[in-house]
Amino acid sequence: MKNWKDDTTIEISTPDGKTTGPIPAKEFSRRVKEGLKKMAASNPTNSTNPKDKYSDKPDYWRDSALDKLAEEVRMKHHEHLHDAEISYLMTKKPMNRGGKAIAGKAKLSKGLIGFYSKADFIIIIDAAYWDNFDVPQRRALVDHELKHCSYEDHEEGNRTWIIRGHDIEEFTDIVDRHGLWHDDLKTFDQAVGRQLELGLNEKAGDKKAS
Q: What is the CA radius of gyration of the chain?
């Protein structure tokens, strides 16, 4: 069956008041679809890749909201870092540890990087994670990365800045199979228990107040 587009032609008005064409309707439709696809592909907000929304950003940049929150957390929980120079950076580059994506990373700033950054530590935050986190999550992330920043005292009275590892390095499967088999896990379990108890108490208080 013959389609009306088979014989239909279209003239297109140009910005200068003239016309171009005639163009067969089928060809016009093809060009429109192709143009829309190109527009969608070039618009970061329409992209399925969340990293594309930062296409106008450099690989690393400073963010005033991150700086402010990080300094609040440091002043409240990390007195041992009061004289440390810490630089906070956002990044659009994916980070991972052991093949698993991570939201943040704390690095010891030394050598050439330390010379130019004038910092003792550099904390890097993945912008995509940051944008999707609420304020409590952002605070926890910054607190976690600051916890990696520590020091060693020497007999001569000197202090050396170091990166501290996690309190617990364990697999979920091992805990499933063997339980809390060493002291670090037991200590962590006690901390989780305190948080659960705190949450239950807060819920009970809310019900009582209502």
A: 28
| Rounded (5°) CA angle 130-133-134 | 125
Cis before 22 (ω within 30): yes
Q: Which of 137, 142, 163, 143 is nearest to 151 (CA)?
A: 163
Residue 135: partners with Cβ closer than 8 Å, 6 or more residues away: 69
**What gap in Å lies between CA 181 and CA 138, rounded to an integer?**
32
pTM of the model: 0.66
> In whole angstroms, what is the distance from residue 197 CA to residue 11 CA?
73
pLDDT band at 4 (very low <50, low <70, confident <90, very high): very low
Best CA proximity match to 103, nearest among 142, 65, 77: 142
The token duo for 67 is 């700086």
Spatial contact of 75 and 139, defined as CB atoms under 8 Å apart: no
Where do we find the tokens 């690989």?
59
